[in-house]
Every structure is written in C-alpha cells, then in structure tokens.
Fold Transcriptional regulator, AcrR family.
Amino acid sequence: MSVTKSKGERTRQRIVERAADVMSVRGYSATSMADLARETGLEKGSLYNHFDSKEALALAAFEYSVALVGRRFDEALAGQERAIDRLRAIVGVFRSLADAPPLPGGDPVLNMAIESDDAYPALLERAQVAMTSWQKLIGKAAKEGVVSGELRPEVNPRELASIITSTLEGAVMMSKLFRDPIHMRWAVDHLMAYLDSLVVAGRA
Amino acid sequence: MSVTKSKGERTRQRIVERAADVMSVRGYSATSMADLARETGLEKGSLYNHFDSKEALALAAFEYSVALVGRRFDEALAGQERAIDRLRAIVGVFRSLADAPPLPGGDPVLNMAIESDDAYPALLERAQVAMTSWQKLIGKAAKEGVVSGELRPEVNPRELASIITSTLEGAVMMSKLFRDPIHMRWAVDHLMAYLDSLVVAGRA
C-alpha cells in the first residue's frame, strides 16, 4: 500500500475540505453543487465523479468537520488522568474554539442539529451520532469522577453532560450571533465554577 | 377605522403564519417562494403581491414568530413583582416552550442566528435585535435584583443574561436534536438552582 494519495484522492479531499468551510457558513441545504463547483474551481461533473449526490458530499464534509473539532479535544485530553481534569479540559477547549475556530461557521454539530429536519434524515442521524459520542465522552469522565470519589455521589453523569453541552453550544450560538467571544468566556467561567461546586472537598 | 381586516390583510396574515411554520422547520434560505406557494395554496404571483421578495416575507415571518414567543414571556411575567421571581419566570417559560412549542421548528431567534450569515445581513440584524431585547429583559431584572438587595452585589447583569440565554438556547437545540425535552428540563433545573445560589440569604 502506498502512503501517498492518488490524484483522485487528493481532489476528493480538496472538495471535502472546501465544502466543509462553505457549508459551515452557508448551511448544508442552502449550498448547491453549483456553488461548490465554483468554490473548488472544478466542473460540476467532476464533483459528481467523487460524490453521487450533494447529500453524500454533505455527509463527507460533516464527518471531516467533526473530526477536525474532535482533534482539539484529543489534544486537550492527552495526559489528563483525573476525571475532574478531563472535564475541565473538555470545557476549556471551547475557549480556544471561540478564539480560533477550526471552521469559519462554527460548530458543525450545532449547525447540523439546527439545520437538519425530517427532510434530511441521514444528516440528522449523523448529527445525533456525533452529539451522542460527545455526550458519552463527558458522561464517562463524570461517571469515573463519581466512582473515584472526586465528584459528589449525587452527580448524574448524563445530566451533567447535557448541561455542559447545552451551555457551551448555546454560547457558540451567542458568540456567533454577536460576533463576540465574551459569551463563550462567560459560559466557560460559569461551567468551571459549576464543576468546582461538584468536587468533593479536598479533591479539587 | 375598521377593526375587521380586509381580505388582503387576512391573506397576508395567512401567508405570514404559514411561512413562519414552514421556515421554522426548513430554514429561511432553504424555503423557496414556490414551496410557500404550494404550502399556502396560493399562486406565486399572489405571494409577490404581498411581499416584494422572499427576504421581505422571511422578515415578516420572523417578526411574527418572535412576537408569538414573546407573548409566552409576557404571560409568565404578568404579576411578578420581585426581580428574582421575574428571573425564575423567564427561565420557567422554557419548560413550557419545550413541552408545547409555539412553532414547530423551535426558537426563531436561535434558528435565525445559526442560519443567517453575511449573505443575509437584514435577517442577521433582526436576529441580533431580537436577542438583544431578550438579553435586556433578563439583564434589567438582574440589575433590579442587585439594586433591591435580592441578588448578591457581585452579580453582573449582562453576564447573567448571557449565561441564562446560552444554557437555554443550547437546551433548545439539544431537545430538538434528540426529540427529547429532558435536556430542557435539566437546563431549567440547573438554572433555577444557579439563581437560588445568587439570592441573598433570607431574600429567596
């Protein structure tokens, strides 16, 4: 197996990356294959050589976007052993996401969750899968924290994951709406203080 | 002046109400005038008799949607004199919005904030105006609470308004994504407890 990508693979990758940027700003349904042809400088036929449909391309762009954001979390979590530190690292990533977003249109899962409806079941399903895996990342750390005695025993891991996610995703929206990262900073500070309040005395 | 609406005004109103429902689910940019003609059972020409452009119709549908949601807040705030009770009422409205949404696609401001980008400056501006007025409603109650001594003096009204909004709007998104109002219930419970923590002892 060769480690270098073929020309076709490189073209495909270039289409996916450009589509991820464009669709992140403009939305999946509002972006046409003609838009993407113009943005990539390719013929529409060339796009269809790589993707059977706009939906197939949208899915590939979404998966790429989710992986791009996921890498930030992997980096932040590397070397964090204690559950409470993992939770703080997850929340803290959003500070950097607000200051230096990996995609121009913000969080792909949030965008997809808002945009997708019953007309795009495949896209909706992928957004649910991505959000569920993110919920599990937080829930698992919370559960470990309860088991290890770092977090108070009444902490409900699923509930904590939901509250953290709601607060941060809402702050992504607010920062995007007002073009002002202050909303994310306030949300992160609030959650850090909330996490502190869940830590068993002497385990911070 | 007659209090009954002319046929033209009734038709206009019917278009706006139907457009608000459809665009709330499908998005403003993904909904075409042809879609709205089909949904209202009118000719496209008839839509253009009432609205110069899809953007003009989208703006009218957005204003109507914001007013529809705003009425829930007016009802909840009626008779609430103390600042802390006003804050609790505002947060509590979201429970009923999750259980019985006034629009099928959820919060119009959230949808507009996510969907609108530099391609739709007028829509983005309206979303900012609507969100700012909502922030002021919360911020004003918080400020009154600090002045009256109900809330702790270190409470920052703008920050509190931002945290409440982020948490609730994020929970709207989560409940919509998973078709499960539990996320909204957790968010509301979390914020009610947070508000309790800001109340000066003896003033709850």
